[in-house]
Write a structure and sequence with these properties.
By secondary structure, the protein is an alpha+beta fold. It is built from 7 helices and 13 strands. The chain has a 5-stranded mixed β-sheet with strand order 1-4-5-3-2. A 3-stranded antiparallel β-sheet has the order 8-9-10, with helices on one face. A hairpin with a 4-residue loop joins strand 8 and strand 9.
């Protein structure tokens, strides 16, 4: 699923007598309760050439010790890899939530705040409520993700273009066109012809992060790259851009 490796070529060989456990030639493992509620399966794998750390599909971690490695060194590798493992766990949880059906009580982000979906059943119809929004999908369904996404996309299409044009006027930047799309891997883009394309999922972000994403694309009208000069332009227009970037790294596209 997600894997991090650490080879002997980078750290040097492990010396004998450093806490190495004697293992037979076949693979053996044991489950180690670790921090943050993560269980780590420690595996001795004779054919492995380096330490490997992988987040499994069930949310547990698998820590592989190579033939010449030691359990103590593997655990030190695990401790050093804590930030990486937590990022992968957060991403795994996001993907897992995305796969679950949206029903009464489902929580999701709307304008940067976690909201709770309420499903109100009527006579042959359903009303969905969250925050200050109401959605009427018609007949009851087993999964309300699609009607909620449809509603949020329509909301983004109404809100994002005028906000983009407003910020462009404030910054003195000419924009030819603003579109709202459903990109899979990016929050937005800017074409050489002056078209700004924004991901409708920006509606999930706080207003300040939304503005940062718009400004990020607007600055490409002045510098079509991510050079140091570009980031100086971003910093001048949005001084707190690093905080917005941290939020985006934590909340990836689902």
């Amino acid at each position: 699923m997600f894997q991090l490796d650490w080879g002997f070529g980078k750290i040097g060989a492990v010396r004998a007598g450093t806490g190495r456990t004697a293992w037979p030639g076949r693979e053996k493992s044991d489950l180690l309760p670790w921090k943050h509620g993560i269980a780590v399966r420690v595996v001795r794998q004779p054919q492995a050439r380096r330490y490997l750390l992988r987040l499994q599909a069930d949310g547990t971690a698998r820590l592989v010790i190579p033939r010449r490695g030691s359990r103590d060194e593997a655990l030190r590798f695990l401790e050093r890899s804590e930030p990486w493992l937590l990022r992968q766990r957060d991403h795994w949880q996001t993907q897992r939530r995305a796969r679950l059906p949206w029903t009464d009580g489902t929580r999701f982000l709307f304008r940067g705040k976690e909201v709770r979906l309420q499903v109100k059943n009527g006579e042959g119809s359903v009303t969905l409520c969250f925050a200050d929004q109401t959605v009427r999908p018609g007949a009851p369904q087993s999964d309300y993700r699609e009607p909620i996404d449809h509603h949020l996309r329509r909301l983004a299409e109404r809100e994002l273009p005028p906000r983009t044009l407003e910020l462009a006027r404030q910054l003195g930047i000419e924009v030819k066109r603003v579109t709202v799309r459903s990109q899979k891997t990016r929050w937005g883009s800017c074409s050489a012809r002056g078209t700004i394309s924004l991901n409708w999922r920006i509606i999930h972000a706080p207003p300040e992060v939304r503005d940062y994403l718009i400004i990020h694309e607007l600055m490409h009208r002045r510098q079509m790259n991510h050079s140091s000069r570009y980031w100086k332009l971003v910093a001048a227009a949005f001084p707190d851009y690093r905080a917005a970037e941290l939020w985006l790294r934590k909340h990836r596209l689902a």
